[in-house]
Amino acid sequence: MVILSRFIFKSTMDMARFISFYQYYVIPFQFIIPLLTLTIGVIKKRNLKNNSDF
Predict the structure, then answer these.
(1) Cβ-based neighbours of 18, under 8 Å, separated by 6 or more
(2) pLDDT for 1-54, tens place per residue?
(3) Is 22 exposed, middle or buried (0-12, 13-18, 19+ CB in 10 A)?
């Protein structure tokens, strides 16, 4: 990870500045994408259950 961060950020100050924006970048990955995946899974399971009744 340290080596990867050297490619992403030019200096430690760039990395420190990014931390203030990190809270906005993390919201989709921690909340929106998992909730969307859960919703799609529940809908598919419900449709599969309804189709097997016939």
Answers:
(1) 9
(2) 677 777 888 888 888 888 888 888 888 889 999 999 999 999 999 988 888 765
(3) exposed
Distance, in Å, from the CA atom of 2 to the CA atom of 30, rounded to the nearest integer, reads 23
Kindly report the three-state secondary structure assignment for every residue of 11-29: CHHHHHHHHHHHHHHHHHH
> Among residues 35, 15, 13, 32, which one has the least CA distance to residue 24?
32
